[in-house]
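User: Hi! I'm working on a homework problem where we have to compare a predicted structure to a textbook description. Could you give me the structure for the chain below?
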Amino acid sequence: MVQLQHLTEALGYTFQNEQLLRLALRHPSLGAQNNQRLEFLGDAVLQLLISHKLYQEYPNLHEGAMTRLRQRLVCEQALADIAQKIDLGAYMAMDHGSEMSGVRTQSGPLSDAMEAVLAAVYLDGGFERAREVVSRLWPAQLEATEDAKSRLQEVLQSQGEQIPSYELVREDGPDHDRVFTVRVVLADGRFKEASGHSKKRAEQAAAAAMLSSLEEKPAR
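Assistant: Happy to help. Predicted structure tokens:
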């Protein structure tokens, strides 16, 4: 039997029912008792958790921008990258043929297993424990995904326009829970405002909102 201690340490969660985790790691090549049903649930759990995170951390971010951020955070490659970071493939159970074909390192099976593991955490410990696992594993992906400032600059430069400026509009809330509102302004005067729990996040949210606006109504 595969020893799962290192995996649970990487997840930051200890299962009450370890069989749920073992089921989440069973590749479909092993027959009916596999991780596909957990994968189905895990997809929905992850969508909700990432949506909740974006909703909380970017209070003024446009729906379209949040949707695009979420898509990048829950896509197959993002899930596979996280699975590789915690060496999830080493714990997967599969038949000999799948083993020989390199399934342990393939993005599809890894992302499926990652979703199944999240579902197992959710079933075993509830929403809050699953949220903690996502918060533990996804920070680097969130930081990389949310670099809307760079993308906005690239879009503007490709159109021959000047880089935008960012202005701090206001700060609200108590010291332990400050909310910063930032305005991004284009050379032609168009602007968007957004908020976040740091100036950096507010700037990224404002840039994402501007990107969303440019995509919906391209400048002529």
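For your comparison, note the following. The beta strands are 165-172, 179-185, 191-196. The mean pLDDT is 88. Good luck with the assignment!
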